[in-house]
Amino acid sequence: MSKKKNAADYIGILKKLKNSGLFESPSPNRIRGTDDTLASTEERVRQILGLVNRENRKSSSMLFFVMYDIESDKVRRYIVKYLQRKGCTRVQRSIFLADLETNVYEEIKNDLAEVQATYENKDSILVVPISTDYLKAMKIIGQNINLDIITHTKNTMFF
User: Fold this and answer.
1) Contact at 8 Å (CB) between 119 and 16?
2) Whole-number Å distance between alpha carbons of 140 and 125
3) pLDDT exceeds cutoff 50 at 126
4) pLDDT band at 48 (very low <50, low <70, confident <90, very high)
5) Which whole number is the average pLDDT over 125-145?
6) CB-based burial of residue 125 (10 Å sphere; 0-12 exposed, 13-18 middle, 19+ buried)?
7) 90 forms bridges with which residues in the sheet?
8) Measuring CA to CA, how many Å separate 3 from each of 6, 9, 145?
9) 102 with 117: CB under 8 angstroms?
10) Can you tell me the mean pLDDT for 111-121?
């Protein structure tokens, strides 16, 4: 049986990476690996709206985005695993959305700040709280997705 890693394990792994000689981010001209783990755009929109429209949202939870531009493939993979284990939903390759307790938000924010400080880099990580009203007002550009069908907001009148 494999032991399930907790979030603190990833921070420890990143500290080990620092100690092993990871000092700078790689050249930005490297070939990026493909990540085929993303769901379809329509499914990701359903996930976003599922978080926003959840009826039993706790008053102590908050919605927030985590967005990053991390050059190191290895560090990026650890961040992705960390965010998924914490309960964040991946909505783009480098954007996660979460509806989590405020203390978990603080923990994620602090852990990511620690990762950022672990090695010399030109990376950026943004943790952005967002209101449900703003999230409900989202618009999708570039994909042919009918939000009215997903959100069930179109009304049909019969005569």
Assistant:
1) no
2) 23
3) yes
4) confident
5) 82
6) middle
7) 96
8) 9, 11, 40
9) no
10) 89
* Cα angle value 85/89/92 (rounded, 5°): 125
Tell me whether residue 82 is exposed, middle or buried, using C-beta atoms within 10 angstroms of its C-beta: 0 to 12, 13 to 18, 19 or more: buried
pLDDT digits over 87-105, tens only?
A: 999 988 999 999 999 999 9
Helices (H), 21-129: 41-52, 73-86, 102-118
Quote the CA–CA distance of 48 and 25 in Å, as a whole number. 31
Residue 73, phi then psi, degrees to nearest 5: -60, -40
Q: How far apart are the first and last CA of the chain?
A: 62
State residue 120's pLDDT score: 84
Long-range contacts of 88-96 (CB under 8 A, 24+ apart): 89/44, 89/47, 89/48, 89/51, 90/37, 90/38, 90/44, 91/44, 91/47, 91/48, 92/38, 92/44, 93/35, 93/38, 94/67, 94/68, 94/69, 94/70, 95/65, 95/66, 95/67, 96/65, 96/66, 96/67
- Distance, in Å, from the CA atom of 104 to the CA atom of 86, rounded to the nearest integer, reads 8
Whole-number CA gyration radius for the chain: 18
CB 57 within 8 A of CB 131: no
